[in-house]
Amino acid sequence: MAQGKTAEVAADLAVSESAVVGDPVVAPTVAPALSIRGVSKAFGPTQALWPLDLDIAPGEIHALLGENGSGKSTVIKCLSGYHRPETGEVFVAGQRLTLGSSASSHALGCRFVHQDLGLIDAQTIVDNLHIGGAYTTVLGTINGRAARRSAQADLARVELDVDPRRLVSTLTPAEQTSVAVARALRRQNGSEPRLLVLDEPTARLPQKEVAQLLDLVRLVARAGVAVIYVSHRIEEVLEVAHTATVLRDGHNVATCKVSELDRRSLVELLVGSALDEVDVASRAQPAADAPAVLTVENLTTPNLSSIDLEVRRGEVVGIAGITGSGREVILSTIFGGLPRPVGTVAVDGKALSPGRPDQSIAAGVAYLPPDRKVSGGLVGLSARENLMLANLRKHWRWPALSGRKERAESRAWFERLHVRPADDVERLLSAFSGGNQQKILFGKWMRTEPKVLLLDEPTQGVDIATKAELHEQILTAAEAGACVVVSSSDTEELIGICHRIMVMREGRIAGLLSGKEKTVLNLSHTTFGTNGTDVGA
Q: What residues does 383 pair with on adjacent strands?
């Protein structure tokens, strides 16, 4: 990002430059940027949000927290006009929002950046910034020079110094997020941005780019725009937010200053009690003479170079690395979802043919991909159908599947994985919260009793309680005899649940960490090659 533009941004949005960094930039007499009074929402018999009161000042970074299904998404959708609340009223900068109207929401200055960003990778930054708006035209044709000038001004507002003619696909994840924020902050039809809602903005970012995103959030707040920051990452909330509201089962259980909280107290607000987070060091270790179940030799593709890996029965091996290191493609390649022109993959000594996921499944390999909405599950099918998909033979009774037995087993998995609502296995997968979707897809593979469990970003975008539950299931699977490989951008996750961590850089293995070597500092040094030598390579 370019430097020295904060004052320009503040002036551009008509906010005093005298604001103290770290505090909401608002005088006592200014109306709240957002005022929610008694807003509630139900879906049939389910009360998703009980009457909510909330005030957010201009320039305030307000964290909206809660487990999956707590009501956060319902609040956001009510503000955007996607849902119409049953009760209550909302004011933006003192003006009443017409509930259920997206046009009213936008006109009053509410802006939203969702986790998927809504950018078109194959288009330029200029084109993406003008989505939903209008180009300047001359004689019925687009004025390219004016469009670029406008785009440069938009990018300057978020201190992003890149050529607006670049394709979005060439940007880093943090730069793509900045483009999405720049688009959200554009003035359109005389509407000034007053509230920016960021929904899991760092979920897809590598660790090194998180700080860059948090700086952007602070920049937006200093410009006088109120920010609702939704995240499951406790450390980020403690670092960037002024205030936090915690929802649980649709109720507001607390709204308090973040300066008065620490990690433990915030976690207890989120889950309602103390939370025992999983630590692999406190569990039974794999036997020293345990046989290798998964063997990878000389795995080479356009993105991977000479990868050798052995994972023993009962062992959990982590894979770390930034985006582009090869970390994000290695598990799919092992499973057979991506081409494997060179190298061998074997389970219990039996080689698997490349490009044959069916053969991998038959050999006892299970693969949970990182994107549950695109490749992980079929959102148009029920939870029961998704749970059963990986092994339909179990309940086949000629000439049809036994629906009764499928429902019984599905209910058992719901109970084991604490899926909510607990009694609705016929509900569409899309109707569950993100964390519950992930539990269902995890159960889909666990019911196959896999020898090899490949997990790609298994807890991305889930709440802290769900993360702890999934970690427990992972270690339980390993203790039952499976070998587990976890690819994750969450360094604390890898340190907490893995016996060994393989660090990747530029398609190669840069280091192997185990025991006391598994520290955030060592992971960082090995990931970026800043320690002079590669640990354990």
A: none
Sequence-distant (6+) residues with CB within 8 A of 485 are: 294, 309, 311, 316, 317, 318, 319, 331, 334, 452, 453, 454, 455
Whether the per-residue pLDDT at 2 is higher than 70: the answer is: no
CA dist 60 and 535 (Å) reads 43
Structure tokens at 224: 């006088």
Among 209, 123, 234, smallest CA distance to 170 is for 123
Report the C-alpha gap between 369 and 450 in whole angstroms. Answer: 15
Over residues 286-342, the pLDDT tens digits come to: 998 999 999 999 999 999 999 999 999 999 999 999 878 999 999 999 999 999 999
d(CA 457, CA 155): 31
Tell me the two tokens of residue 410.
């599905």
Confidence of residue 431 (pLDDT cuts 50, 70, 90): confident
Domains of the chain with CATH codes: 6-120+172-180+192-271 (3.40.50.300), 278-364+451-537 (3.40.50.300), 381-449 (no CATH)
Residue 439 reports pLDDT greater than 50: yes
150 φ, ψ (degrees, to nearest 5): -60, -45
Q: What are residue 78's phi and psi, to 5 degrees?
A: -70, -40
Alpha carbon distance 226, 196 (integer Å): 6
> 403-417 vs 434-446: helix axis angle to the nearest 10?
120
Which residues touch 425 (CB under 8 Å, ≥6 apart)? 382, 383, 384, 387, 407, 410, 411, 414
Look at residue 375 in the predicted model and tell me its pLDDT: 53
453 close to 470: Cβ distance less than 8 angstroms: no
Cβ of 221: how many Cβ atoms within 10 Å? Answer: 28
The amino acid sitting at 36 is I
136 — pLDDT class (breaks 50, 70, 90): low
Statement: the pTM of the whole predicted model exceeds 0.85: no
Higher confidence at residue 12 or residue 239?
A: 239
What's residue 359's pLDDT? Answer: 94
State both tokens at 531: 């320690």
